[in-house]
Backbone:
């Protein structure tokens, strides 16, 4: 389908917007009037620039407060419209968006509205212009899409149709299935925007929090399916007002918008997701201090054993249960940091092809000739995501053990290494502020993860906003965070390791290497013990605890931070699905105090 | 009155918070439970630290979801309370805030609520603790302050009283005059928070947008007066949840909170404002390129004449009508920038004393011995604010004219210089993000300006948030902005000059020095002419236009930007009180394109 986007959705001058939109591969644009008013180019020059870039001008918008007005106001409104038709002729735009009247002067009379819109359509026809009438969610009398359609049908003019906007429909809780009552040829335009569910004034919600399809909580695929079933054949057009996008790179935002439309189309086409990962193959850490240094020491203490060395690169494999960590001495990070995630993929080739179809940057296969080929894409924060089958392990020759206490010295170790840690439970990445919505869409569309809880957590120096996502079966869980904190406070990443018995691990660490555990304040346990009857040993060991409404329990502990990264050990009991978010502020405060 | 603040109101660890709060001069604190839970100090250590800092612990808060529950829940709640009483004993806190129950399990039965709160008060009494019961605005059954008081009276226990919170009262639109029905000794605590008027879910509004008294739109003085009339003798305590304060400096936030309480007290005491300025005495610009360079050239073109030279500093006085601009070659700004504002003050000494009483940094009088003394304070963004009578002009000897075209060469000029510009209409300053609320309070409390409109304006690379303030008679108008824009886009300051005939000035500049005028896109005029019947000359000259609902008109133009600063010429017709905000996005787009 033809793909468009309103110029208001990306940042910059009109020229910059058009260039970014064209570069992202859109077919057309909606020219948002304020963007034109502030532009030094004449409408003819804008038209030529768009044409040079291969962009059609699919809509000019918005025209406000026109219909259902007293006769003395109508004359001025028609005069205003005539001027806009002239601009549109110069611009080469033949479709004008008319929003339902929000003025206190508007009259609640559908027949009057229809009569005046018919008059407007007649005038428009003289200029070769068509009118798309849209119900704003906060329209004074007309705020429901079926009401706008009723008026359009009443007016009965070939140059008058309706414009549907997913935000205006879904934010009011209207059921989009009624769209199928509208003949497709009378749906002149379709604007798409998603949004997070927020309890606030709908006008403010619309102006500041719209996002691209798949980034919020609305069912855009369901709505679009109804629009297509009605017979609509026009463009899918994004119209987003978003405070963050306003400040971000126009190129990147436009590309992300295009990704959202491609994902929506795939969803509509029933494209099954080839890439839903079946588990974590590995997590890769930059380790500037290799050979059992700080990171290796920490892993040893957690019961990991070095089980392999890469055939051609300075990378070690450390294992325990199904948890595999790569320590890469060649990664260019300067300090220990999470640089890559390997996902068990049922179809690595298909997965990377799917990622590529969604405009994710596919990474070059930089490796030695004899290495197993690995397919990878870059996540929005730069983390490399590898799609793996088990072949990747062939690159790692069994290594001399790094932890002599557990193994006979000198014996190469291939695994399996059994211990209390059974695998990787989840990985938490901190995103740059401007890419939070992009990250949500990436993990949802490229990896096929489903959104779970979204939270705001207090940090001593600000707020942490957090979104959790998981594979349908829970085999892969990812948490993306943004840290809205004061200057000078760095965000951390972490790997949460699934564990059979967190208390046992804590007991051993407390005895052997207590300095590796993040100290948890006694006041936390005073509160915990006020709320629940918990084993007093949790306090002695520094193990944190959470309980869900169904009696599921979560025991977890944190290591100290090494570079940008720390580890969490988590034990899920009785179907607990969360992440112990209530304890995160305690962790953040202790981490800041020690940073 | 005793002054307190909740630890949640400022950023940092609990220790950092206490230090900042003590440094700002508070008498006590409310310990916010989460701050204690995350603190490595024991309650006894926190108590000692507070005592060392001279801070009393006036309240421990909050205790949630206690009252009006089924019997099986009550037992657990009492157990939880017992643990908290123990913590409070260790902490040396004797007052516990209990918020009205928000749980779905709560029962809408006032007698049950009263009975259980009475039981809680009895238990509390055994620990020397008192209970302050507060109606949360989103409480499940109890969400109005008079309802909470009704339950407290019904429970009738000396250790049970009510806590009043201005946000919970005013956000619901409750009339605070009913507070006078509560005996003062049963008001155990008073929490104060202001807020901007926002149409959103009250819980989110409370958690993210509270601010200090005088920074928002609530009538805190009226509410506090009712509380005092009721006989309350406890502390005035600030409790603010604010996303910006969370990220800002604790020291600065605490000081600003103290300023808000002092201003509130002055307001209650009927302290009349000694410093409301009668006009702008001058605006001072850093001019690294003196002697009729870029800034001087621009001023000459606008009809200003150099009328004085400072006796001991490299500062020139440029005048036209009542507009006086100082060009300071010695200011340390690196580029042309607005560095100081002089205000005509009926009582400069009183004004600076008043500013000092509100904790504004009074600036040292750095000047040569023979100079006229000048009183000045620093505004939150660092701009110097001088309080002047006319004596300051004595420092400036008449200068040789800088604009020969208008005056006889070689003749020293003392003024008055008449021209189309009659004075300074307003000054617009861009604030650092974290000091926007502080700036609003500063201009309101220190200068006695009244808040006018608050706006959000689209910028090509973000949003501009803007607050206008003015003296009651309009003689002094200030606009403070914050620019929430992407990296690399600098904010600008500007001086708006009142003008009798903007069109005449534009005509002359267009003919003589068109490069000094900010070019306004033709598309702007296409739209303007669609909306209003305006003189086509506005388009030729680049004069912008606005009209208010009462037929007041505003004609204005902008100069190009020099360094960080530009000039606006404004002509107000028919009582227009605004700032042409609708045209600002056009200006911003053109400025960015030329930057």
Residues:
């Amino acid at each position: 389908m033809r793909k468009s986007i309103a110029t208001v959705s990306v940042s910059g001058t009109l020229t910059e917007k058009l260039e970014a939109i064209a570069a992202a591969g859109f077919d057309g644009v909606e020219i948002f009037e304020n963007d034109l008013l502030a532009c030094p180019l004449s409408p003819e020059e804008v038209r030529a620039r768009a044409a040079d870039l291969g962009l059609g001008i699919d809509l000019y918008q918005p025209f406000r407060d026109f219909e259902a007005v007293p006769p003395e106001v109508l004359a001025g409104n028609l005069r205003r419209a005539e001027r806009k038709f002239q601009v549109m002729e110069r611009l080469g735009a033949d479709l004008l968006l008319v929003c339902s009247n929000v003025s206190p002067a508007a009259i609640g009379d559908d027949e009057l509205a229809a009569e005046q819109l018919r008059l407007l359509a007649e005038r428009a026809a003289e200029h070769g212009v068509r009118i798309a009438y849209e119900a704003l969610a906060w329209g004074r009398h007309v705020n429901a899409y079926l009401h706008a359609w009723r008026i359009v049908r009443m007016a009965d003019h070939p140059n008058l149709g309706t414009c549907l906007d997913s935000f205006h429909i879904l934010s009011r809780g209207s059921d989009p299935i009624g769209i199928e009552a509208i003949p497709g040829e009378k749906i002149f335009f379709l604007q798409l925007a998603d949004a997070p569910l927020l309890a606030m004034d709908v006008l403010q919600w619309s102006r500041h929090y719209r996002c691209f399809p798949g980034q919020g909580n609305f069912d855009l695929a369901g709505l679009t399916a109804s629009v297509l079933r009605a017979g609509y054949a026009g463009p899918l057009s994004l119209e987003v007002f978003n405070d963050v996008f306003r400040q971000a790179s126009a190129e990147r935002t436009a590309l992300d918008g295009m990704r959202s439309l491609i994902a929506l189309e795939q969803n509509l086409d029933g494209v099954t997701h080839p890439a839903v990962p079946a588990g974590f193959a590995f997590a890769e850490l930059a380790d500037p201090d290799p050979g059992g240094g700080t990171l290796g020491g920490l892993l040893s203490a957690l019961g990991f054993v070095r089980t392999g060395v890469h055939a051609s690169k300075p990378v070690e494999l450390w294992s325990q249960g199904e948890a595999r960590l790569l320590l890469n001495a060649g990664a260019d990070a300067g300090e220990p940091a999470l640089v890559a995630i390997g996902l068990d993929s049922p179809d690595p080739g298909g997965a990377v092809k799917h990622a590529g179809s969604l405009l994710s940057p596919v990474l070059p296969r930089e490796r030695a000739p004899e290495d197993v080929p690995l397919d990878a894409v870059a996540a929005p924060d730069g983390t490399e995501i590898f799609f793996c089958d088990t072949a990747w392990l062939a690159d790692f020759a069994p290594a001399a053990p790094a932890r002599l206490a557990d193994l006979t010295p000198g014996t190469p170790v291939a695994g399996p290494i059994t211990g209390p840690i059974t695998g990787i439970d989840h990985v938490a990445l901190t995103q740059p502020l401007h890419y939070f919505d992009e990250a949500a869409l990436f993990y949802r569309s490229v990896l096929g993860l489903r959104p779970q809880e979204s939270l705001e957590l207090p940090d001593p120096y600000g707020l942490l906003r957090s979104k959790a996502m998981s594979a349908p079966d829970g085999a892969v869980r990812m948490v993306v965070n943004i840290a809205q904190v004061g200057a000078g406070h760095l965000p951390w990443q972490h790997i949460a390791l699934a564990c059979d018995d967190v208390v046992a691990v804590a007991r051993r660490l407390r005895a052997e290497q207590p300095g590796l555990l993040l100290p948890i304040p006694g006041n936390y346990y005073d509160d915990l013990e006020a709320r629940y009857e918990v084993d007093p040993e949790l306090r002695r060991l520094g193990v944190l605890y959470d309980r869900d409404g169904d009696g599921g329990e979560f025991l977890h502990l944190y290591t100290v931070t090494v570079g940008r990264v720390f580890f969490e050990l988590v034990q899920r009991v009785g179907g607990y699905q969360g992440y112990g978010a209530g304890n995160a502020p305690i962790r953040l405060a202790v981490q800041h105090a020690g940073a």
Remarks:
- The longest helix of chain B spans residues 71-91.
- Chain B is about 30% helix and 25% strand.
- Chain B touches chain A through 57 residues (CB under 8 Å).
